TrEMBL record:
Monomer. This is 3-phosphoshikimate 1-carboxyvinyltransferase. It catalyses: 3-phosphoshikimate + phosphoenolpyruvate = 5-O-(1-carboxyvinyl)-3-phosphoshikimate + phosphate. Phosphoenolpyruvate binds at K28, G119, R147, Q199, R380, R425. PROSITE patterns: EPSP_SYNTHASE_1 (PS00104), EPSP_SYNTHASE_2 (PS00885). 3-phosphoshikimate binds at K28, S29, R33, S197, Q199, D349, K376. Residues 13-460 form the Enolpyruvate transferase domain. It comes from Sphingomonas aurea.
Length: 468
């Protein structure tokens, strides 16, 4: 796995309406978790629709290094491999077969685990290793090595893991590269999340799988629940109860996971770019097939509908315990809103796309409550403020978000060169902005898009009539 491809600058100009039907890659969160839990099951699991971006492939490589057998089989032509009505191929129609090692069966990796740019891989795999009697060194690229790991180090250390991390800024510890020595048996804990983080919650629950007794996580603010759903699906004993302190998620340790057949729904975070693009580019009419609509992930759809977006759910269904539908989105005039702060956890990855929608709305959109954006692949608040500001969008940056004064549907000035800062979501969001700009927008490097959406630009060409 390479740390980063050479820079790929790209200039985007207005192309006219987006029209057609596409499918987005498999959900990144579910793809990571399906590999991890399959690797801990006894027997062979089958995964369809797996996202084949660099982040998920980093997870697969790490699990192979710890003993799991993970093999990709090409899709059979005409074999109907897609489940329940997905109309468009995703490029991920292959079946992945995973032979697991059983809970507690992970083996000592022979070399450092290269996480590339993937914070999800790092934090969740740290949880897996924490309750195994093995030592693993985690490394990553420059962007990942600047991201804080202290929030997951702290609870895993309470469970008995010995973690030596690199110092961060101002002498604070908790960055990659880091070395983690797991403890077996680990110590079950009850832990209240100090910040809303599905990754921290998941790391603790994954550590709890191989820990005797009951490990509990209390989340005062609900976060995405893919781990809980999938753990239950694999046969773990897990309960979720409401309490005055928040949701209490309890996992019973020393579990035995049973292999599964998983169909990964389309990633709502990837669909976000088409929902915004079709909303703001006049004449657009797009169907995005097979989008996962887990209620902990639909904040952007709710916010866009509040702004007046025309988004309709077609053929709603349930696949593998997750709600799914095809989304039809047509161009509509957007009006500014004050984004409800309680939507933040369910759209944290979609804020860059929301800021772009706000740039085309009528009035001043206030989007706050998103401190977490400061510690993503980049400081996404600062990055998007700089990018949109350079394109002539009036805005005010806040510590926890942004206020954006929109163009009332008119094209924004554009004409800027944007720094993507090795962040896939910044690159894709500003590509969308450039589709309705008066002057071309140049993005300094779109190579990071491959981490989550390798076919993004192919889909853009297809929707704008430029397919080869």
């Amino acid at each position: 796995m390479t740390h980063h491809a050479p820079s790929q600058p790209l200039t985007i100009e207005a192309r006219g309406p987006l029209v057609g039907r596409i499918a987005v890659p498999g959900d990144k969160s579910i793809s990571h978790r399906s590999l991890m839990l399959s690797a801990l099951a006894v027997g062979e699991s089958r995964i369809e629709g797996l996202l084949e971006g660099e982040d998920v492939l980093a997870t697969a490589a790490a699990l192979r290094a710890m003993g799991a057998t993970i093999v990709k089989e090409p899709a059979v032509a005409g074999g109907g491999g897609r489940a329940m009505g997905t109309a468009a191929p995703r490029g991920e129609d292959a079946v992945w077969r995973v032979h697991g090692v059983g809970v507690g069966g992970l083996m000592q990796p022979a070399q450092a685990l290269d996480m590339g740019n993937s914070g999800t891989s790092t934090r969740l795999l740290m949880g897996l290793v924490a309750s195994h009697p093995i030592t693993a060194t985690f490394t990553g690229d420059a962007s990942l090595s600047g991201r804080p790991m202290g929030r997951v180090i702290e609870p895993l250390a309470r469970m008995g893991a010995d973690i030596t991390a690199s110092p961060g800024s101002e002498g604070k510890g908790g960055r990659l590269p880091l070395m983690l020595r797991g403890l077996c048996p680990a110590v079950p804990i009850e832990y209240t999340l100090p910040v809303a983080s599905a990754q921290v919650k998941s790391a603790i629950l994954l550590a709890g799988l191989n820990t005797p007794g009951v490990t509990r996580v209390i989340e005062p603010v609900a976060t995405r629940d893919h781990s809980e759903r999938m753990l239950a699906g694999f046969g773990a004993t897990i309960t979720v109860e409401d309490s005055p302190a928040g949701k209490v998620i309890a996992i019973h340790g020393e579990a035995e996971l049973k292999p599964q057949h998983i169909v990964v729904p389309g990633d709502p975070s990837s669909a976000a770019f088409w929902l915004v693009a079709a909303s703001v580019v006049p004449g657009s009419d797009v169907v995005v097939a097979n989008v996962g609509l887990n209620p902990t992930r639909t904040g952007l759809i709710a916010a866009l509908r509040m702004m007046g977006a025309d988004i309709v759910e077609l053929d709603p269904r349930v696949v593998g315990g997750e709600p799914v539908a095809d989304l039809r989105v047509r161009h509509a005039p957007l009006s500014a809103i004050e984004v409800p702060p309680d939507l933040a956890p369910s759209m944290i990855d979609e804020y860059p796309a929301l800021f772009v929608a706000a740039a085309f709305a009528a009035g001043r959109t206030v989007a706050r409550g998103a401190h977490e954006l400061r510690v993503k692949e980049s400081d996404r608040i600062a990055a998007m403020a700089a990018a949109l500001g350079a394109c002539g969008v009036p805005l005010e940056e806040h510590e926890d978000g942004m206020t954006v004064t929109g163009s009332s549907g008119e094209a924004i000035p554009g004409g800027a060169t944007i720094a993507s800062l090795l962040d896939h979501r910044i690159a894709m969001s500003m590509t969308v902005a450039g589709l309705h700009a008066r002057r071309p927008v140049t993005i300094d490097d779109v190579a990071p898009v491959a981490t989550s959406y390798p076919t993004f630009f192919t889909s853009l060409d297809a929707l704008t009539g430029r397919a080869a």
